[in-house]
Amino acid sequence: MIRLSQTGVYLIDGKQLVSDPAQAVQLAGRPVSxxxxxxGTMAYGILQAHNHSGDMQQLRLRFDSLTSHDITYVGIxxxxxxxxxxxxxxxxxLTNCHNSLCAVGGTINQDDHVFALxxxxxxxGVYVPPNLAVIHSFNREMMAGCGRMILGSDSHxxxxxxxxxxxxxxxxxxxxxxxxxxxxxxxxxxxxxxLHGAPRPGVGPQDVALAICGAxxxxxxxxxxxxxxxxxxxxxxxxxxxxxxxVMTTETTCWSSIWITDERTREYLALxxxxxDYKPLAPAPIAYYDGCVEVDLSKVESMIxxxxxxxxxxxxRELLANPVEILRDCQxxxxxxxxxxxxxxxxxxxxxxxxVEQAVIAGCSGGIFDNLCAAADILRGGSIGxxxxxxxxxxxxxxxxxxxxxxxxxxxxxxxxxxxxxxxCGPCFGAGDTPANGxxxxxxxxxxxxxxxxxxxxxxxxxxxxxxxxxxxxxTARNGGRLTPAVDLDVxxxxxxxxxxxxVYDKRVFFGFGxxxxxxxxxxxxxxxxxxxxxxxxxxxxxxxCSYITDPVTTTDELIPSGDTSSYRSNPERLSEFALSRKDxxxxxxxxxxxxxxxxRASGQIDAEIARVYAALRPYxxxxxxAVNIGSVIFANKPGDGSxxxxxxxxxxxxxxxxxxxxxxxxxxxxxxCINWGMPPLLTDDPAAFALGDxxxxxxxxSAVLAGMPEFPAYVIKPDGGVARITLRLDAxxxxxxxxxxxxxxxxxxxxHREEETC
Length: 759
What we know:
alpha/beta, 4 domains, 28 helices
């Protein structure tokens, strides 16, 4: 089904894959170097067109447009305002698809929406009202175009199937674009995803995406690389199928994605009134890739990703053949990484099947037009039953919703017992349809991370999510919750012509780019607060380990939970109270205690505990206690998988965090978030040298950061006064990144270096 190459490959005329350079030259019919062939990828051409450094090895990118949703845009705009922004220099789309429901009561959520509209008027932005479209569907319909680049503050910013190289990053990177700076990155490697064959009836985009994720995630095959989709199999896939696959590339930890474009791409853009945004994209006659993921679409089965990661993927057929053993293993893994409540997955096996209690089809991956049409074809004339099992569907945009009403699909779904809800991302991140305690939910959404569905194990609540395609979800729903792969059903899938009525947007969306109204006053709700003052990095640093996480991977959902907590997104101090609340409930208290010690130091007093630490250090270093910042640090083996939301880092910083410490960082975006909030992303090869509650002293940290030193000494001070020397590392940073850390955060950096701003 999927094969990974062990070497780089050449693609000849978009058809033939070879690994031998001599064979590549022979097939090309002319001499060609690897360096020339590298420039033959689609990704290289798009990056070159957007690069402002003059050096294709060290890119400085400017994007064509930006996009954010209502968990992230307030913080971005506040950061950019504090950094001198007076207008949006490129189209900036502000959507309201994440916290449009009143998760915690009060006016919090709508206050943010009112703020966003006032910001769109003042600075010249695009404002998409609540429940009109989810973020990525709006951008597919209205903003993506062939050869463009889009930067979004959501990790699933992926529009590669429409010829757009899109990147999901933390808010700091969008703030940089808003003040005229660039997105700086070493030129990423490019991996070829070669598709051939065609999917069987009943196989959908989530099936293919999960199969790919299962093959590449654990080995890091595409980590921080571009996935470039080519091959004859692309032609067999409708655009919604491609879009559904493409958005899931985020779960592989790739940096971005791009697809060849064709007549179907042109037709999609023409349908949306933007045929002029089409141009053919294809690799050069000879192109070199740093790896290849070869996918035989005809062999992909109905898939399931077991809790708690999209990469825990297998054919549903395999699970049903050995359910007790597989679910017991999964259950043990889930319970081992969950504090508090435990789950019993084995109990889902009864009455000659595996049974689930809830199903959801939603968001930018699941709620797209073709998926809901296929689900309706399966459910037409059937019933989900009147037991505990439920099915909710969330169309991805109002134009899609409108056509689904007109063609009868929504009627077929509701007639079978499904509940049709608003255009909302809620169940994808824990702000809607949270299952009951102990329940198992099947979802066509993007992620099934720990507690992302909204449960709170520390309060005795734990449910789990598996990921499946809408087609298999509908098949399962037709059987009342009995897990059923769609390929097992004989379904007459209908042709459902798509349609797009732009008037839905023209009547409600505020299109203000290029029409800034500087006199407009921003509307601040009572929960919208400015960022607190953050200190610059002192020459030496003293930090206490306030959380020590040994899980193989730590997601941003664990660092700062999503769901109802996101309602406090515009209040940095209040949101910080939830940091690590479901993973390490004691963290906030420990971090606050260290922050109080720093406040005491800043006022000219040295806490007795700090004095004992310096006494223990005396044989090894002679720092000035009054001049050394005191902060907290989190250690995790591999933090940052998942969401791009910068709060995973900013909450630590608000609580007095001064660094992150890890074996490695799961994603570039989380590492960037740490940097933009003034926390050096430190690395260690010896985490056993320190423990929770230990102090770490780093002499000359500021100088080491500014000089770009790859490693430097540090000292671990144990509670009993023992001291051990360790070595810490810091991977390569750009000059500006080093200065941001030294200045204490991005806001401080721009205040300190306003003369360098270009906008």
